[in-house]
Amino acid sequence: MLIIPSINLMSRECVHLCQGDFNQTTAYSKRPASIAKAFAEAGARRLHIIDLDSVRGNSANNRDVIREIRDTVPCVLQVGGGIREEEDVKELIDIGVEKLILGTLLINNPETVSAWVRQYGDIFIGGIDAREGMVKIDGRVSSTFLKDLEVLDTIKNLGITQLIYTNISRDGTMEGPDIDRANLIAQRSGMEVIIAGGISSEQDIEEIVTHRHKNLIGLIVGKAIYENRISLSAVFREYS
Predict the structure, then answer these.
(1) Is it the case that residue 172 has pLDDT exceeding 90?
(2) Number of domains in the chain
(3) CA distances (Å), 110 to each of 54, 104, 115, 238, in order?
């Protein structure tokens, strides 16, 4: 099982949002690269980095922070947030990021995504953020009026092979992950799925591992680490 610690960047700091709400922000560290180093030393093989400033159109804020993280850790980096232009793709590849997460663009401009997949290969991960089964985009503030299950074939046909599925209502709440919906996404899509949102304890991780569909290959955990509810080194020894 791929256990992926998350780092959310805002104004060059490591923060966390509740349900993706920019008005419910908790700051955890002014040294994101040090956080990344601690995760790597605990045993992380991949890190999940979301550039929250880029979501709102300011890509300049955190790119050098991402570069510092890249220079600090050997982990695979999967980075998302506001990747809308090919210049974003090129800059992040130049930094050394291995995986790029696309969400809004999958819905608004699938032709561009398809062209990027053909040009750059299998480096893209689809991001589905949903509330009550409805897909949200533009930093989770805009409704697409599309159900999460309705977009799976479209995403797969673009050449995307891996998805991150987030139940927004669980994200940052530590109220437990939506395993049933993630399993359904994994089953219906036939793609590799990573679950995010709501993981609060090592018991939650055990539940995912025990009850996961075969295509559910990873999980993202954030706030529970920062709130010291999960020992990363322990879960890596047990489950990864």
Answers:
(1) no
(2) 1
(3) 20, 9, 9, 39
